[in-house]
Amino acid sequence: MKTETERLPCVKAEKRRGETIRQALKERKLLSTDVRIIADDKFIYLPLTRALTDAELRYIDAAGLLILTREFAILEQRKSIEDIIGFKPSYEVIGDIAVLTEAVNESNEQLVAHALMNRHKNIKVVAKRISPVEGVFRTRKLRIIAGANRTETMHTENGCRYKLDLEKVYFNPRLAGERNRVAAQVARSGVDAEGIIDMFAGVGSFSIQVAKRAPQSHVTAIDINPEAIRYLRENIKLNGVRNIEAIEGDVSEIYARFRNTADRIIMNLPKSAYLFLREALSMLKPRGGTIHFYDLESAYSDASDKNKKSKSLERAIVQAKERLMVKIEELGEEFHVQSIEILEARKVKAYAPYAYIIGIDAKVKR
Ligand SMILES: C[S@@+](CC[C@H](N)C(=O)[O-])C[C@H]1O[C@@H](n2cnc3c(N)ncnc32)[C@H](O)[C@@H]1O
Known about the structure:
The protein has about 375 residues and is of the alpha/beta class.
């Protein structure tokens, strides 16, 4: 591949003064780090981010130095994948596996895979998603394109480690911020020893972060997928958390064991979480508690709307809040619900054009 160059202003200095001047330029953020410094037998050429002012010339003690312009080779590792291959591929990285989305077409797969592995030395496998997230376990099918032939990896997020197999369990790295938010909320809730139920726990993505940040709490982490529970148990050990109990089962069949025990419930099963509100309400303590509810909502905006995107998101949030209120109210009498307060509702991530995962924190008083 031909080395690309960039024409930049630079300082030409005798080699013996080179290091002092390099440091002075670096301190003032005047040294360009995107290109390779040039040196010959006698001189060093230090590339600049821009032309220097008189004050800056005085600062680097420019007497005897020459300021000129010349070509510098652009450093490969400074280039983005887009720079290397000429377009922006759609992918996400989980542990040491890069997963390309269906949007990357077959003729480009190898090009993208090798550029990713060259650019990011920590990527050891490149796979491609060949099915949507589907089924009760919310898993997806992958095809390996380059690197090692495996779909198991170790992912680090917010200081926690997760071992998981991307084909056997659900995991979405784009929820890192949301998990951090919920864990921080539990940590500062002021309740001494919260009882928390993660109804759709997966490999412990929420449970482990919550348990770690709030060691006085007790987390019951339930999942119907035996593989998710196997990894969850391993991840509990990996992270040295003792306050989680991992339970394999269909929450609609086993919830009665946890009736009246939860101060807080996490319901991350967008699309279907509404179907489990009866179980959630019956597991809340008699005085009630907080539900972190995740919903998939799509909302279109009128052609006349000036800012279509933000209008559509606004609508999706309103729809999600209303729907949750109505569903809880329907069950209100049975579970002695006195009030529902929506503490917060926000976009967690975009799902498709005009469709979003909306996160709602709701306080239910019984
Ligand atoms: C969207 S994933 C969320 C996993 C995890 N909370 C996370 O954020 O990574 C939903 C999980 O719910 C589990 N699940 C689906 N139906 C269930 C049920 N009836 N009872 C318990 N778990 C269920 C699936 O196996 C899957 O692991």
